[in-house]
Automatic annotation (TrEMBL):
Annotated source species: Hymenobacter negativus
Active site: 433
Domain Polyphosphate kinase N-terminal residues, every copy: 4-108
Recorded catalytic activity of this chain's protein: [phosphate](n) + ATP = [phosphate](n+1) + ADP
Polyphosphate kinase middle domain boundaries: 117-303
Protein name: Polyphosphate kinase
Gene transcribed to yield this protein: ppk1
Residues reported to bind Mg(2+): 373, 403
Binding residues for ATP: 41, 467, 563, 591
EC number(s) stated in the UniProt entry for this protein: 2.7.4.1
Amino acid sequence: MKTLSRDLSWLRFNARVLQEAQSDTVPLLERLKFLAIFSSNLDEFFKVRVATLRRLVKLKKKTRAKLGESPKRLLKEVLAEVARQQEEFGQTFRQQLLPALNEQHIHLLSEAELTHKQREWTAQYFRDKVLNLLSPVVLDETLHHLFLKDQAVYLTFFLTKPKAQKPKLEAERVMVMELPTKRHGGRFVRLPDEGEERYVLFLDDVIRVGAAELFPAYKQVAVNAIKLSRDAELDIEEEVSGDLMEKIRSSLAKRATGFPARLLYDPEMPKEVLRAIKQKTGITDEELVEGSRYHNFRDFFGFPSFDEPAFHYPPRPALAHPTLPRTGSLLAAIGQRDHLLHLPYQSFDYVTRLLREAATDARVSSISITLYRVASKSAVVKNLIKAAKHGKQVTVVMELKARFDEESNLFWADKLKRAGAHVIFTPPELKVHSKLLLIARREVDETTRQYAYFSTGNFNESTADLYTDHGLFTANEELTKEAAAVFGYLRDQTVVPELKQLLVAPFGLRPGLNALIDYEIKQAKKGKQAYIILKVNAVEDEGMICKLYDASRAGVRVELIVRGIGRLVPGEPGLSDNIHQRGIVDRFLEHSRVYVFAHGGAEQVYVSSADWMTRNLDRRVEVAFPILDESLRAEVRQLLDFQRQDNVKARDFGNTFVPAAEGEKPLQAQEATYKWLKGLKRRQVKT
């Protein structure tokens, strides 16, 4: 079966991010942010995927063979593509963005470009604001091991030629120091303006200017940068399972925690310094990656804004919801009808308001919720704590294996426990990725009614401003009853619930999707209309890819809108002729998942937390929920159609922008979505 490597497919996605940094249709400082996103993505890729490949390479040959592909060959291909992209990244920064900044009278200077006056100002800034933040460590025989923090930038100092009055000093010394970005308050320093010309300096270069004062006993000080990415210790359970998993566990039992995955270094670094770093850290040539003078481009998220609106995306204030009240009871509104929330176009505040109302409503008896990633100052968790203190039975399914958020989730779990909430931690082999909220309330007639919120996105007000997601508020008894059954499953994992409406992994999502695809295949073979439209972050699972190939061969029209990993190869004669794939990268991160099936004219629309990846289908708790309300189903389809028609930000499988057809007007899905939702309330009032 023809498929693309998962890792090479992901790198194609990051190339699309880089395309946004290269696009002169994107506001100037937003282009810098896309460079920051590209850099941050690549850091995580090395911490997780490259680190995993390197560990798999070290397995015994027989065990490696059972993985189905050669980790060694794949690693070589991946590193070659990374090197190509990093070269393109550097060219984008140096040849496109720096000149574009200069045209706007913004100059990101290097130490060598400073005028005498600017150098004097910088030297004084170093003395006043930076000097006391520095604490270099000498790499000599007294230091047995140097531990470099993950993702932190370090400066190395190569000191040579002691001054005459210090003849007893060593002829050469190597020192290293973490760049004090956080303590300084950012990576960039604004120099005084000169007329309309504005100047910015890396903190690294401020230290280069002050290096002579930092080490006054030496005539020469060479300053270079390094950055280490450490193995994120991705559980191999994410990749494989069963007997092979046991063999891999055995093979990797002695792996070092946080093993270095990549050391980026300045190619101008003296070889003596690189040799000392390798000796003191244990890093080998295998982990060395030639970088540039500056590392951690994700710090460009903090580049000065200059208060120039034209340098940024135009404001897109969150829209008022057309059917949810701005004030008053949300529970009452949900009790009357279903409501669909579209983030970030509409405000996540409706979710926090609902929790706040439930926390203090005397008739609410219980609140159950799944938490995967939450904000650092989470209003969601604070309202759950308030509910527990008001005597509500609060049940929180807290996922401790949310990569890179483990510490934050432990912190909030402790806070919730102290408040009296019942916190459930899932077993190691099961990750809860679904986004569910269920509220039980005793109504005036003394019956208990349940209210639910199903979502594709996390209960995280920070990312809710950046990620596109759909959320359903409902009191529909069929859906709320099944949501309660899912929470029952999460409490003990012993009884698999029988569900008719929800498709729930790990026990029901894959069979449910297979059945829906099979129905389309049967319809196509009868000569009837058959189609599948999928909007997901990833299509990776070989079983589902095979099923889509079967559908294509049967004549089912398959449209894929894939943001990230897409292992399926569309347009292959005799295999995937009827499959078309595109992906959109734009201002907001496309995060919602929508599955549409023609279903013999009675179109089925599911919204979900799950991508079509093996881990999501088989080793996670995921929920796909149907949109039962006809008007809301039409709403989802309208927004999906904007994505299908995008001819501004959509790319095809080969990362080529999808052009507008002759006579066709430009359509940018995210812009069209905002405008359409903005007019939604007016249209409903008229009807």
